[in-house]
Amino acid sequence: MFKARRLLFFYVETPLHVGAGRASANVDLPIQRERVTQYPMVQASSLKGALRAEFCQKHGIKDNSPEVEAVFGKAGGTGDNWAGAVSAGDARILLFPVRSLAGVFAWVTSLHALESFRRAADLVGQPISWTLPQGMPDTNTAWVGSKPQVSAQGKVVLEEFSFNAQPKAEVDAIAKWLAEHALPQGAAFQYWRDTLPARLCILHEDAFRDFCLYGTEVQTHIRIDPDKKTVAEGALWTAESLPADSLLYAPLMAMDVRNGKDSKNADAVLKEFDFLQDGHIQLGGDETTGQGWVAVKVYGG
Amino acid sequence: MAETISKQRLLEQERASHAYDAVVKAKGKKDKELKSLARSAPASIQSNGLGQTLAFWKAKNEEHHLALYHALSGWLKKQLHIDENRDLLEWIATTADSLQYRQATAEALAYLNWYKRFAEAELKE
User: Fold this and answer.
1) Residues in A lying within 8 Å of B, measured between beta carbons
2) Structural domain harbouring A289
3) Element (H or E) spanning B40, and its range?
4) Do the domain assignments include residue A126?
5) What SS3 string covers B84-111?
6) From the list A25, A140, A216, which residue is nearest B99 (CB)?
7) pLDDT digits over A254-263, tens only?
8) Where in this chain does the entry annotate a coiled-coil region (chain B) (predicted)?
9) Nearest by CB: B51 against A160, A214, A238
10) pLDDT, tens only, A42-75
């Protein structure tokens, strides 16, 4: 069992493309998704690799230095390898931004996404205080807060789909909790924390799934033939990314260091990641075109 | 359980077979244009919406646009139990509720995945 546990929240600042290779899908380069729910996700290995790179950069040390290998593990022959002391889980979706006729955009989620989050929080020893409204929103209904910015004349129009707005007191409480604990706390995020209650919509699970599937950003790319200044033969492709303003979460857990030399315990290992609080990391591809910036919030511990 | 799986399998097969027939039927006219249109169709639906994409094809009114329009609308009308004599775009604009429209979008993307593959395989550059 892991001895020290926390949650990490990732607020997507610029479109996030954590790729799943080439696939026979709507886009040429799709993003990683959960097999069963089809929600967007960031695989733990992608996340751990990014944390490792960030850790090296922060301390100005090489990837194969003893400090890094103590925390993240060392590959190699029998007798000369050990598992890392830190364990990152998959990053899963909690809030997904969708174009809205009123209020520019809405943050959508579902009972399933919220309850999955509750279980993840429970797993890392951080029980969640809020409760969900009774029942379930029907397929054409959006549960909103008491002062929704995203509804007009009782309707919430997301992309081209219209939902009946139904105010629920619990939505306010959930939004308030998320603003306090999940969104980055810097002054730059003040506006976003303030408007979360007015923008949060809890949708029917199928509707939420559909937005996660069809509401992602699709960017078309080309490669120019440098001599002709026209598109090179066959060099047109589409890439999918998770839109900016999505919110993901992942567990971060630790054991005592297992390299047989250092005596750093689990708590000290997790403390090494305090530098992430309210900072940024880069996840996924296209770093040199400004993609994949996420703001990090550490919760618990 | 076994029955559900075989039903699902059947649905994918039906999509594939409908798309294959449609591609073969359209073959020999504007192959290059149709191939490129089929390639970009799913991304276009995802960025612009099903209704907008269909309206764009219809407005273009060229052979390859209409070939894809008729293939897709033929399949969707069959799957969503829409009267064969109605125009799909008219159904989207006047009749479809939010849920039906979402289902039509999902079905269109599933169908176009097959259409795109067959167009890539069957049509000449």
Assistant:
1) 24-27, 139-140, 159-163, 206-207, 210, 213-214, 216, 218, 220, 238
2) 4-18+32-215+242-299
3) helix B31-48
4) yes
5) CCCCHHHHHHHCCCHHHHHHHHHHHHHH
6) A140
7) 999 988 888 8
8) none
9) A160
10) 999 999 999 999 999 999 999 999 999 999 999 8
Closest CA to B110 of B75, B69, B74: B75
DSSP A29: B
Strands of chain A (E only): list them.
4-12, 41-42, 73-74, 82-83, 86-88, 91-99, 105-110, 141-144, 151-152, 155-158, 161-167, 200-203, 217-224, 231-241, 247-254, 280-282, 293-299
| A160 part of a folded domain | yes
Q: Do residues B51 and B103 make contact, with C-beta atoms less than 8 angstroms apart?
A: no
**ipTM value of the model?**
0.74
| Integer Cα distance of B46 and B40 in angstroms | 10
In a domain, A141, yes or no: yes
- Cα–Cα distance for residue pair A215/A158, rounded to 1 Å: 10
Helix (H, G, I), strand (E, B) or coil at A298: strand
Residue A8 and residue A214 in contact, taking contact as beta carbons nearer than 8 Å: no
Domain regions of chain B by residue span: 10-122
Helices (H), chain A: 44-59, 66-72, 111-123, 169-181, 190-199, 205-214, 266-271
pTM: 0.88
Domain assignment present for residue A27? The answer is no
Residue A104 phi, psi dihedral angles, 5° rounding = 70, -60
Topology of domain B10-122, per CATH? Peroxidase; domain 1 (1.10.520)
